[in-house]
Amino acid sequence: MAVINTSGRRKTAVARIYMSAGAGNITVNGRDYKEYFPTGTLQYVVTQSLQLTNAMGKYDIKVNLDGGGVQGQAEALRLAISKAMCEIDPANRLILKPQGLLSRDPRMVERKKPGRPKARKRFQFSKR
Questions:
Q1: Whole-number Å distance between alpha carbons of 76 and 92
Q2: CA nearest to 17, candidates 31, 32, 3
Q3: Any idea which fold 4-96 has?
Q4: What's the maximum distance between 2 C-alpha atoms anywhere in the chain?
């Protein structure tokens, strides 16, 4: 199996992955994914598409993560792994698509407006 290269995005996080056949090692920015994502919830998000397609322990994944916070990075990584699983076997698409793992979440932070402290918040109104 050749190396499969895909990317995933969420908010401002970008995940670039290189997936190849192996023992199931997931390396994120040179560290193990369990060390990089310490909470069980984030570890579940990262491995969700692998669990659904029964591919845990079959592929080595090398990940370059950039930008965003840990939640956005985990979800960007999940999208990249889901795309790679579809490249390996198109039948995986039928498993992952109903779960919503193949769509990029378009929600982004709204920009700050001039004359306001945040995007929608206003300064306190003073009548007198």
A1: 18
A2: 3
A3: Ribosomal Protein S5; domain 2 (3.30.230)
A4: 73
